[in-house]
Write a structure and sequence with these properties.
Layout lengths: L4 E8 L2 E14 L6 H17 L3 E6 L7 H10 L4 E5 L22 H9 L1 H8 L6 E16 L14 E4 L3 H9 L3 E4 L5 H7 L4 E5 H6 L8 E17 H5 L3 H35 L3 E4 L2 H10 L1 H11 L1 H9 L2
Parallel strand pairs: 2-3, 2-4, 6-7, 6-8, 9-10
Antiparallel strand pairs: 1-2, 4-9, 5-8, 5-9
Bound molecules: pantoate.
Length: about 325
């Protein structure tokens, strides 16, 4: 663990005591006024309320510590203490979590939240300890939609040959290949420049990201297909977690819960108001009907068979069965 310790010298009645505040470097990809920023603020405030100034949280928004894969690797080797991140590169660390990236698996936000908060989600979090990480909680981004510069997407044919950026996520990559697009996996810090330069036509992200990252400045069309739910995760360095006493662990768990509540609150608001905001900012938005979504699902039949053999039909069915 390479955490830095700031020593505060306090003079008390002629004696000198040393109080150590541990710096806690928390990196995330988006701005402070995003759902990640809301989660980070709630995390920091709760930790301070519970443990005083034992930990000095230093926030690094806007990919200030690098892309999500780099940050998670930094947490593994102990140069970074914590992150709030998407599921983009998670299956490189815990392959089984890729099941949550399967398109059209979750019906709605409450289905996803109940699954992640329930036994299936909690068992998945526990697997991160074997990957040199400690997963505190599942946060949230919302359902992902497609934006692009070519035109509205309502059928798989509209995706034909579309150069769409995906996360560095094999499950998403397979789905967009099956749908006839030309997917390009790319780390988030490269996405906006690539859209500006026309190196890619589109990308896909939830309203929380599209609104907070002002993707309307680089994309004309937004198609509300909700092809996949996008969880977020709060990860800590394992040596940091293992070095905490029980009271501190309880405080970190509480801070994690507060971060999740803040992220979900942000997502609820942006799901209700985000489309109107983006229309006001000039985006052309089309709804994708249930029948139109079915056409995407039908085209994913072979990819689905692969997902079932990779993650187990039983697990996928048990996720679908969550109320
Ligand atoms: O698209 C992504 O890579 C992620 O959704 C993002 C925007 C980095 C948030 O985690």
């Amino acid at each position: 663990m390479t955490r830095h310790f700031a020593l505060a010298v306090t003079l008390l009645a002629g004696s000198t005591t040393l109080a150590a505040a541990a710096d806690l470097k928390l990196g995330y990809a988006l701005a402070e006024d995003s759902h990640y920023g809301a989660g980070a603020k709630a995390f920091e405030e709760t930790l301070t309320a519970e443990l005083g100034d034992a930990f000095a949280v230093q926030q690094f928004p806007n990919s200030g510590l690098g892309g999500e894969r780099e940050v998670i690797e930094g947490i593994q080797i102990g140069t970074i203490d914590a992150t709030i991140a998407s599921s983009g590169t998670l299956s490189n660390f815990v392959p089984e979590v890729g099941v949550f990236d399967v398109p059209f698996l979750f019906r709605d936000l409450s289905h996803a939240r109940n699954t992640l908060d329930g036994e299936i989600g909690q068992e998945m979090l526990a697997k991160f300890d074997d990957a040199g990480l400690h997963a505190l909680a599942w946060g949230e981004q919302g359902f992902r939609h497609i934006t692009n510069s070519r035109g509205p997407i309502a059928t798989p044919a509209d995706l034909d040959g579309l150069k769409i950026r995906t996360m560095e996520n094999p499950v998403h990559l397979k789905a967009f290949e099956a749908l006839g697009a030309a997917p390009t996996p790319m780390a988030w810090p490269e996405v906006i420049p690539a859209l500006q330069q026309g190196a890619i036509d589109g990308q896909e992200n939830p309203l929380s990201v599209i609104v907070s990252a002002n993707l309307n400045e680089v994309q004309q069309y937004l198609s509300l297909d909700g092809h996949v739910y996008s969880p977020a995760i709060i990860l800590l360095s394992k040596p940091l977690w293992d070095g905490l006493d029980d009271e501190q662990k309880a405080a970190f768990d509480k801070a994690g819960e507060a971060a999740v509540a803040a992220m979900r609150g942000y997502v609820d608001t942006v799901e209700a108001e985000g489309v109107a905001t983006l229309r006001e900012r000039g985006m052309e938005v089309n709804e994708v009907s249930a029948e139109e979504k079915q056409a995407f699902q039908d085209q994913l039949a072979d990819a689905y068979a692969d997902y079932e053999s990779q993650y187990g039909k039983e697990l996928m069915d048990s996720i679908i069965a969550v109320e």
